[in-house]
Amino acid sequence: MPVEITKAMVLAAGRGTRMRSLTDETPKPLIKVKGRTLIDRILDKIAAYGITQGVVNVCYLGDQIKSALRQRTDIHLTFSEEETALETGGGVKKALPFLGENPFFVLNADPLWTEERPSLQDMADAFDQEQTDISLLLWPVERVFGHDGKGDYFLENGRPRRKRPDESGAPYVYAGAQILNPWIFADAPEGKFSLNLLYDKAEQAGRLAAVVGAGDWYHVGTPEALALAEKRLRE
What is the pTM of this model? Predict the structure, then answer.
């Protein structure tokens, strides 16, 4: 049965070192593509889904992010401040008091995608919390731009499987959006850790799901990838 999701978190605490000098004085989520910041583009998708309450974690140059986002009136944002970046898993676990007891979206602040269908709606429609702990948004590698990897996941019998070290590639890239059941953090480590730990645990238990996006997806991780995204979107 589809789940009603009322809250979302955006991960915005990272340094963005691969952007080189572009992030020396500006946090990566505030880098603009075609005149609009990356994090505003993500929040636009969250607001379009219908969510009015969100959480953003901040660390590196966090005051700039807080100042830039306070002008939004379509979504009420709470900021989870980290003295040192806690990575993806630690960041979400710290913010749990703001996210409630029901499944919620978590999105990276920096992916950029065009849509043939609303991806967040597709994810919510397919999420069955009785059978699923985590659902990932995946994207076909042939429609991914600016990404230097070779894919992260296979889909087997309707469930995602992470690429093994001995496999040279996989047909789907993790697209930076997910739905999480909050109870997965009950036995999670304290402090800094990656959400990959919980993905693998859910996969082993048969409780990891995925939805495949439709459109073009941009990994804006380097100045070159930023220029490519800008060029393609203008075209």
Answer: 0.95
